[in-house]
TrEMBL record:
Residues 113-247 form the Peptidase S54 rhomboid domain. Residues 1-20 are annotated as: Disordered. It comes from Rothia aeria F0474. GO terms for molecular function: serine-type endopeptidase activity. InterPro entries: Peptidase_S54_rhomboid_dom, Rhomboid-like_sf, Rhomboid_protease_S54. It is found in: Membrane. It holds the Pfam family Rhomboid. Belongs to the peptidase S54 family. Gene3D superfamilies: Rhomboid-like. This is Peptidase, S54 family.
Length: 257
């Protein structure tokens, strides 16, 4: 399966892009020179991510071995792994213990103060419906891998977790008696993130494509029983806002050039 493409229409300004790979959009910037760096070029140190040129200037050496760089969407792989392990635990531990202890029900959370459920529910799935997990993990890979490479590992993780919280918050307000599990709030947050990035890059073709995909999922959420459109809505809004806040400094700098 391929990741959501980044098409380049004639006359559109592609910014910001990696100087070494101008065909790659990237909102992750070197903490030293503030130039964009794609996943292949990023060098991760304890003090943050820097580009290969700054690494050479600081250390006097060429960039470290590939194992120290972030070319793979490792956070996405980790999130998928956590979801799969949790699903297996749902089956292994009897009496629906995992579900009962970590699912989200807003009115119960308000009573018990078990606020951790607002996050943990995003890693649970319907125990009797494996397709729930499968579809969410496919979507997580397709959108997550693309977004992680564009904005960087930790900002991507922040966006994803914020989207899950946003979905839980929307359920709290709109349907507090519902019991909610699933990564779909986070997935819709990634859709919002991807749409935000494509709008910022003026990628009209991709904007239209992702809006069609979002529309299909919204309709599906309304016509199919047992799907929390409230979590989808909250996740989408939270993911879009979190992404905008993450890329806003880069947008302002690029507009000022």
């Amino acid at each position: 399966m391929s990741e959501p493409p980044i098409s380049h229409s004639p006359g559109q300004q592609q910014e910001p892009v990696c100087p070494r790979h101008p065909e790659r959009a990237s909102y992750a910037r070197c903490t030293r020179c503030m130039r964009p760096a794609c996943g292949q070029c990023q060098v991760h140190l304890e003090v943050g991510m820097i580009c290969p040129d700054c690494y050479r200037d600081v250390t006097g050496h060429s960039r470290p071995q590939r194992a120290h760089t972030s070319n793979n969407p490792n956070i996405t792989y980790t999130l998928i792994g956590i979801n799969v392990v949790v699903y297996l635990l749902q089956w292994i531990i009897p009496n629906y213990w995992v579900y009962n202890e970590f699912a989200y029900k807003a009115d119960w959370v308000a009573y018990s103060h078990e606020y951790y459920r607002a996050i943990t529910s995003g890693f649970l799935h319907s125990q009797n419906d494996p397709s729930h997990l499968l579809l969410n993990m496919v979507s997580l890979y397709l959108f997550g891998a693309a977004i992680e490479k564009m904005i960087g590992n930790w900002r991507y993780l922040l966006v994803y977790l914020t989207a899950i919280l946003g979905g839980s918050a929307a359920v709290w307000v709109l349907e507090p008696h519902a019991v909610v599990v699933g990564a779909s709030g986070g997935i819709f947050g990634l859709m919002g993130a991807y749409l935000t990035i494509m709008v910022a890059l003026k990628e009209r073709d991709n904007v239209r494509s992702v809006m069609v995909l979002i529309g299909v999922n919204v309709i599906y959420g309304f016509i199919m029983p047992g799907i929390s459109w409230q979590a989808h809505l909250g996740g989408f809004i939270a993911g879009a806002i979190a992404t905008l806040l993450c890329i806003a400094p880069q947008l302002m700098r690029s507009r000022g050039r």
